[in-house]
Amino acid sequence: MTNAKVLRSSFMLVILAILITLTACGGNKGNNSSSSASSPAASSASSEAASEAPKEKVTLRIASAYTPDHTFGPAIAQIIDEFTKQHPEVTVEKEFLPVAELDKKLTADRAANNLPEIFIIFPGAGTADYVKEKKIIDLSEYLNADPDWKDGFISGALDNLKFEGFPGIYAAPIGAYSTGFYYNKELFQQAGVEPPKTWDDLLAVIGKLNAAKITPMAIGASESWRSEHLFTALFYKWNGAEKAKGILSRALPYSSPEVIEPLNKMVQLVEAGAFSKNYIANNYAAEIADFNNGKAAMRYSGSWTVGESTGPNSPAGFGDKVGFFPFPYFADKEEHKDSWMGGVSDSFAVSSRAEGHQKDMAIELVKTLTSTASSKLITEMAHDLTAVKADVDPAKSGKLIAEVSKAMSTGKEFSGDISAFEPYKPANTKLYDLTQAVLLKGITPEKAAKQLDDEVAKSK
Question: Region Disordered: which residues (predicted)?
């Protein structure tokens, strides 16, 4: 009996030991399971802690012409301020200067290999040098990864930032523009004239305005970019925008009729009495003032004129008097009727010097500046066009920008300054100077063209 009890007791002890062992194992499994179940939370907590960890502090230098006086200036400043609130680790240094000073600054920065992380470039031969020298990055990868960003640009906008021989897209455009004539409706009514459609119509309007003792056109002729813009528009209406590529390829010499005839048309405007007696001395500010104060009936200018004539610096109510019409075409060149000087202008490039988080934030800031939301804000505040589609409120953007946009929609081909097709810097500079000299009647179109060809010959 005693032995049986001992045997039973021993057996029970063995069973108990096994159960304890199994329970212990089960407990471990339970702990493992519990640990596994809590692992997403732990991972989430870890991720949250990581996301809350201080990010690397970076500084972004951004260079542009968006000073407080620029039509885009106030909106751009607001967008950047909001960006730095969203990204407190980022300090943005704004290197904003007037265009001429900005160009000199970027030239010096480029030579010193000290370009800002973000800076403005323009489509054309000059920008191709940045690409060749690998000074700016290809944004294709980032555009393709964000279809909303890529699809937000107006049709064909990104094509302007592609360069032959270098696959990719090298900047994100913010500015878009069209050029044409802005006119004072009241002064037109006084002279009994309507917006002209053809070149001959324009000359007739100039004659009637003069007869009514109204200066037909304001122009800041002392600044050579004004004459270069006028020449560009005449070139496209005479030849079509595609013809400008002949300057780049050297298939079209400056002494060709295609170049000389638009220069002759500039002289024709002067001889028709299109400008005031002191047009030679007027700068761009005087051009704006003459038009905005009713001293001239028309301006040939870009879409930025909307902001100049309707913004806070213009006379109260003046914007309601302003209308727009496309640059008149030549009746015997009607096939080029819808060739416009216009398209994409200032675009944001990212310097190849930017690395790591600084590069990520530079791209993020460029995306923000060229977003649909930013475009809406800029258009409504600046009363100007952008290269990004946006559903703007006409009550905020104004009727004139809507009129310009509607007229621009009739264009079939757009191209920028003729100077963008001249890759040789000395010839490029001379092109500006000589179009100005022709407009001031200081040189004949033929002699100006020969000087340009002689300058180009030095590049060979």
Answer: 30-52
CA distance 299 to 291: 7
In whole angstroms, give the CA distance from residue 242 to residue 338.
12
Encoded amino acid at 164, one letter: E
Domains and CATH numbers, the chain: 58-175+345-370 (3.40.190.10), 177-343+414-457 (3.40.190.10)
Tell me what the pLDDT averaged over the chain comes to.
Answer: 88
Token duo for residue 201: 């119509």
3-state secondary structure of 330: coil
Answering whether pTM is above 0.85, one says no
pLDDT at 30 over 60: no
As beta bridge partners, residue 458 has none
Q: What are the tens digits of pLDDT across the range 368-400?
A: 999 999 999 998 898 888 989 888 888 888 889
Per-residue tokens: 357: 């988080």
Alpha-carbon distance of 53 to 279, in angstroms, equals: 62
